[in-house]
């Protein structure tokens, strides 16, 4: 039970729970009894219907027998045997009367010797003299079952002597048809285990009865059985009707019980409720003069406990305040990092011992001074503007970010430092805490490491070049003269030399990028031509891996300001990765798109994809998804880190998107040289060029239109399945989502996932929305009448509401 429920409510709920449990037990027991009763009644009905069916079947057969017997006793049939010349004529008239019974399919006349008599027809193929021998010899009629048909034989007697007879074949289906019309259940009629007719689904589980005709019936000798069944659903239907009526009556009976238990609960709980109200409102000491003995005892205990708690709390607060201040001061004084606090105007408030040792000042010398005294002149003049901008709500430069800065000691010497600044509130006033760490030793170590790597790399590259050249000459000139084993070993040595050379080149490039020594020769060049040339250069590599490379572009004049050699290096790296991580026989797709202010290049493979746990490490140095990848496909793990640095040097961005077991897409953007410069925006307006939008839907035309319209404002990622949307949301942060409605089968309903991620959503619809919408749905637009200007305004409002003030 909930802890905030009243005692009266709990008492009422307890009584009601017991009543409901009792009611459920009664309903359950009576339901079982009623279920058995209905089952017995249904079994009786089935038995009665089966018996009736057998009686009807017997009646139908006896009706046919009587018809044949009447025909055999008629004067027309007798004349047909006496009048030799006109007998056929008489019998035809007699047959007309007989065939009024629809179950009789054929009827024929035979003489006293069992010969077939007919002037117009050939003997029936089913007729033979043995079938009528008993009738001729005994002078009595007979019914027999042969070849799934009943045959009725009746003698024609003239003056006490059998002169011949009539044999009629009864159609089994026509005989049983009137019987089957009256059966209201699933049925199965079997005659002599060789002929069967059924109706309904006899395979459904249910109640089933089977009967055979009792002795004395005409159909008894022919092995006839009738099976009737009703599925359990019919039994449940009958039971459900009764259960509904009974449950409604029980619920009606509960209404007065609820009222009675509620009043009893209120009456019993009132003294405790009154006491609880006094305690809640803090009316101490609680008055116990008019209370019952038990309540008075409880109130006295509350009064005593309250006094003791107040005393202990006051003592603890004093001790904690003193202890907390001492602990905080001890931590600040003993920590190895320098900790400095300043107020909103940049004046130093505290200065710990580590800061005294780092800067050479005593705390008493700097407290109350501007923080600028700890910075060299160029940085000191900028700090005040940074702090003022942050307090006015503008973009942060240091606060909340952390960066490397330059500090100045009391003696004027400067040193590199790592600074982390965070904002806090003291008595409602903003304060800032800075943690400074001297990184002079780290900078020296990095410089030594860089110098060592560069020296070793250059020293290794010279002999490697000679070795590779020598091996190439040997394999080129003497390959036909060398033994196979020797040639394989030399080829392996040459391949390893090339791998080692690539590794050294990558190491040198990454060191140049980190140190800022990488030189770029920017010129106007065509990105389309660079991509085409890169694909041509990797054609042989793709064929070796049995991979097909395709290229699609919406422009052939993609002019950018770039270093074409470095861009070629980026394409070569991304293409080779896509090829070597694809399965043999697969395909790598390259696309180039003009987004207005930038060009977007995508390289997509259909391999195993990138494991989610590796995404955050993908662009770090020497990183590969699995150590086995190095042995299987080769590579140094530096290529993506180098490619990302090169793209960022071109004022672009390199990202990726991957779905496990479906491949990966690496895409980068670089600025369009021909795009007009962006207009200067008024100070304080929302600028959303870098916004990320997720499009969930299957309308490729709509996606293309959205990318064209928002190319200057946002980057749109399109997915067409719910699983892709989930992976996209785990890999990057989206500011807004555009979702097609109604949802297609593959997408289902993505709104719950967007709600969990708190991504503002705009629905683009084809029809009226008939579902409940979560809070993250900000607007809905009809696709047929979509106004992109209104959509842009809506996006701007959403971003303005969502974007908080950034920390410095």
Automatic annotation (TrEMBL):
The keyword Electron transport does not apply. GO terms for biological process: osmosensory signaling via phosphorelay pathway; regulation of DNA-templated transcription. Residues 455-674 form the Histidine kinase domain. The chain crosses the membrane at residues 240-260. Residues 401-451 form the PAC domain. Residues 324-394 form the PAS domain. Keywords: ATP-binding, Coiled coil, Kinase, Membrane, Nucleotide-binding, Phosphoprotein, Transferase, Transmembrane, Transmembrane helix, Two-component regulatory system. It is a multi-pass membrane protein. It is found in: Membrane. Pfam families: HATPase_c, HisKA, PAS. Its main location: membrane. GO terms for molecular function: ATP binding; phosphorelay response regulator activity; phosphorelay sensor kinase activity; protein kinase activator activity. It catalyses: ATP + protein L-histidine = ADP + protein N-phospho-L-histidine. InterPro entries: BphY/WalK/GraS-like, HATPase_C_sf, HATPase_dom, His_kinase_dom, HisK_dim/P_dom, HisK_dim/P_sf, PAS, PAS-assoc_C. GO terms for cellular component: plasma membrane. NCBIfam families: sensory_box. This is Sensor protein FixL.
